[in-house]
Amino acid sequence: VGNSSVLICALKLNTTMVTWKISPKTGGSCTLGYRADQNKTDRTNCSDSVNWKFRPDQDPALEIQQVGIVHEGNYTCEVVATEGNFHRTYHLTVLVPPRLTLHCDDHGNPVCEAEAGKPPAQISWDLESNSSPREEVHDDGTVTVVSTFTAHGTNVTNTICIVSHPAGNQSKSIAC
């Protein structure tokens, strides 16, 4: 999320037409087209963040600027050339790294939160705990995972929360 993404599409000799068909998971579809005989580009229902990376007659790559969850979906490039028709489909999945917070609850137990991640983060502790994480799903598709550390009858002065996520791992320590 937030980065730029480039999807490549192979340019063939004697290309007559290139079309990007974009079908997001949510919202309406969008199309970018290029006709070589008229040296003309066309766009239908595409946001300004989705466009050709370069000139489509030289490189028909697609660029998505400031990638967000709304960009998730299927992206298909169709090239029509004298050698035939060529298709390439991408399925874009957006990763959102969670925000890690760690605090002590009213009973002196460490509480670890991996806020608004996609997919949901995994929370573990450096010491053995019988905590069971709970998840809260948000309207934008992100998930907050909360885990409260509960020790097995031992007096713990310092513990570390470990958050594992495909966008990167994080850890924090706290003494409650």
UniProtKB/TrEMBL annotation:
<dbReference type="GO" id="GO:0150077">
    <property type="term" value="P:regulation of neuroinflammatory response"/>
</dbReference>
<dbReference type="InterPro" id="IPR036179">
    <property type="entry name" value="Ig-like_dom_sf"/>
</dbReference>
<dbReference type="Pfam" id="PF07686">
    <property type="entry name" value="V-set"/>
</dbReference>
<dbReference type="InterPro" id="IPR007110">
    <property type="entry name" value="Ig-like_dom"/>
</dbReference>
<keyword id="KW-0325">Glycoprotein</keyword>
<dbReference type="InterPro" id="IPR040012">
    <property type="entry name" value="CD200R"/>
</dbReference>
<keyword id="KW-0812">Transmembrane</keyword>
<keyword id="KW-1015">Disulfide bond</keyword>
<dbReference type="InterPro" id="IPR013783">
    <property type="entry name" value="Ig-like_fold"/>
</dbReference>
<dbReference type="GO" id="GO:0009897">
    <property type="term" value="C:external side of plasma membrane"/>
</dbReference>
<dbReference type="InterPro" id="IPR013162">
    <property type="entry name" value="CD80_C2-set"/>
</dbReference>
<dbReference type="InterPro" id="IPR013106">
    <property type="entry name" value="Ig_V-set"/>
</dbReference>
<dbReference type="Pfam" id="PF08205">
    <property type="entry name" value="C2-set_2"/>
</dbReference>
<keyword id="KW-1133">Transmembrane helix</keyword>
<dbReference type="GO" id="GO:0038023">
    <property type="term" value="F:signaling receptor activity"/>
</dbReference>
<protein>
    <submittedName>
        <fullName>MOR1A protein</fullName>
    </submittedName>
</protein>
<comment type="similarity">
    <text>Belongs to the CD200R family.</text>
</comment>
<keyword id="KW-0472">Membrane</keyword>
<feature type="domain" description="Ig-like">
    <location>
        <begin position="1"/>
        <end position="93"/>
    </location>
</feature>
<keyword id="KW-0675">Receptor</keyword>
